[in-house]
Amino acid sequence: MDQPAWLSRDHATARQTRRTMNDELKETIDQLANSLQTVTLLATRLRRDLAESVQHTIDLETGADKAVRAVKRLQTRDTNTH
After folding, report:
1. Which residues of the chain fall short of a pLDDT of 50?
2. pTM of the entire structure?
3. Count helices and strands in the chain by DSSP H and E runs
4. Residues 16, 17, 21, 22: is their CA dihedral positive or negative?
């Protein structure tokens, strides 16, 4: 049994709409994947930079602690000689 012309057109239109939606979905997924790769790279760089900053902070604290101990040693020597 043949379908009416309008029904064939509706099916063709629906197929084309599905193809268009699939293409848009694929494009959106590609864009998301590319964006997530960028986010991952930036997060990795940030983690490394933060780890380096933490090490610098530890070195700074160590240096400041040594300076404080040196000043305290000088103070105790100075008070013991007076």
Report:
1. none
2. 0.56
3. 1, 0
4. negative
In 3D, which of 62, 42, 40 has the Cα closest to residue 50? 42
* Contact partners, residue 3, CB within 8 Å, separation at least 6: 11
Tell me the pLDDT tens digit for each residue of 55-78. 999 999 999 999 999 999 999 887
- Angstrom CA distances, 31 to 25, 28, 44, 45, stand at 10, 5, 20, 21
**Pairwise CA distance, residues 20 & 40, whole Å:** 30
Question: Measuring CA to CA, how many Å separate 10 from each of 3, 16, 21, 52, 73?
Answer: 11, 10, 16, 62, 92
